[in-house]
């Protein structure tokens, strides 16, 4: 059965891979995309989503969501994703101004139809806004919510404890995790296992095929970032894992945990910690079966250029 996906995203290097995967996977139909700030600004995110989907190819419409966190200042991540958000692709057409909308995700859900798998790959502001504007419509259309964000046992990537997407807008994440959507959290506990080695990225970057070189240019920036910040010879490609587990949940082990988002301003900001009396139970992926996930990525993203052995460190 083909499922309908709606993706809320802040492209972003790994978001770009996730969008391509969702556009190409035969088990899903990409019904619509909504963009958010996060890795980059809202207008750049909208431009980047359209550029990436054109490579899909996909005719999924792109809606603009909100352009900043609910209660915190806007901070983007150009040191992680490049000035334009797509790594070393810094020669992109200037972004057009887009009008931020609190209803952007509701509009995306409306065109996608019923029985939607919603995959969120950025800060949760758009989903929190959608719930605040029309929770009944969100509940009617979204039968599954898979979120890249958070962490339970793994260290943070934005401060010692927190994951970037939740850290950006903790109030939004808190509202979403309390909404009872049955959210499945694909956090750093599992995404840190999905690493594309630097040698594989170099192979893409030097390939004769321009489509491979486009990916190499996208990911080369990410490899340099990981090497400079943590000495890792490769790139953690978080967001495609959320799409992979949305396609096939059996590739992961899901644990139900009560979880609370830290709403402070200190180094615990955005931490998703187990416990917190009265907090709802969230599904947290604690482990993943990598070989079929590597095979999926090779089939839809790296086909012909990389093989399973290229994922070995
Ligand atoms: C998440 O933050 C962003 O940098 C990535 O796109 C991913 O969604 C990882 O913490
Ligand atoms: Ca992202």
Short key terms for the protein model shown above:
Inosine-uridine Nucleoside N-ribohydrolase, Chain A; nine-stranded mixed β-sheet; 313 residues; alpha/beta; 12 helices; binds beta-D-ribofuranose; 2 domains; binds calcium ion
- The tally of structural domains comes to 2
- Provide the gyration radius in Å: 18 Å
Specify the CATH homologous superfamily of the largest domain: Ribonucleoside hydrolase-like
Low-confidence stretches: none
Q: Report the order of strands and helices.
A: EHEHEHHEHEHHEHEHHEHEEEH
DSSP helical segment count: 12
The biggest beta sheet reads: 9 strands, mixed
Please report the first level of CATH classification, the CATH class of the largest domain: Alpha Beta
Strand arrangement across the biggest beta sheet: 3-2-1-4-5-6-11-9-10
């Amino acid at each position: 059965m083909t499922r309908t996906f709606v993706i809320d995203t802040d492209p972003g290097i790994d978001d770009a891979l996730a969008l391509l995967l969702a556009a190409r996977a035969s088990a899903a139909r990409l019904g619509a995309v909504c963009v958010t700030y996060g890795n980059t600004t809202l207008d750049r995110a909208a431009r980047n989503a359209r550029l990436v989907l054109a490579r899909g190819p996909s005719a999924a419409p792109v809606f603009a969501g909100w352009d900043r966190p609910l209660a915190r200042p806007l901070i983007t991540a150009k040191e992680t994703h490049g000035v334009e958000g797509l790594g070393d692709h810094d020669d992109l057409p200037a972004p057009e101004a887009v009008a931020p909308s609190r209803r952007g995700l509701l509009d995306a859900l409306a065109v996608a139809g019923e029985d939607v798998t919603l995959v969120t790959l950025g800060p949760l502001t758009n989903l929190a806004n959608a719930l605040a504007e029309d929770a009944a419509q969100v509940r009617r259309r979204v039968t599954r919510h898979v979120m890249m964000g958070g962490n339970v046992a793994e260290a943070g990537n934005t401060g010692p404890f927190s994951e970037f997407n939740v850290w950006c807008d903790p109030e939004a994440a808190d509202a979403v995790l309390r909404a009872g959507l049955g959210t499945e959290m694909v956090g750093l506990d599992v995404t840190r296992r999905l690493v594309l080695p630097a040698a594989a990225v170099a192979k893409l970057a030097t390939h004769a095929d321009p489509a491979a070189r486009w990916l190499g240019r996208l990911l080369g920036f990410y490899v340099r970032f990981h090497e400079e910040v943590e000495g890792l010879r490769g790139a953690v490609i978080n967001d495609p894992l959320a799409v992979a587990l949305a396609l096939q949940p059996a590739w992961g082990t899901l644990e139900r945990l009560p979880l609370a988002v830290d709403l402070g301003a200190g180094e615990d900001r955005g931490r998703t910690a187990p416990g917190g009396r009265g907090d709802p139970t969230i599904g947290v992926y604690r482990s993943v079966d990598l070989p079929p996930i590597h095979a999926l990525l090779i089939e839809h993203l790296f086909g012909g250029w990389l093989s399973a052995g290229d994922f070995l460190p």
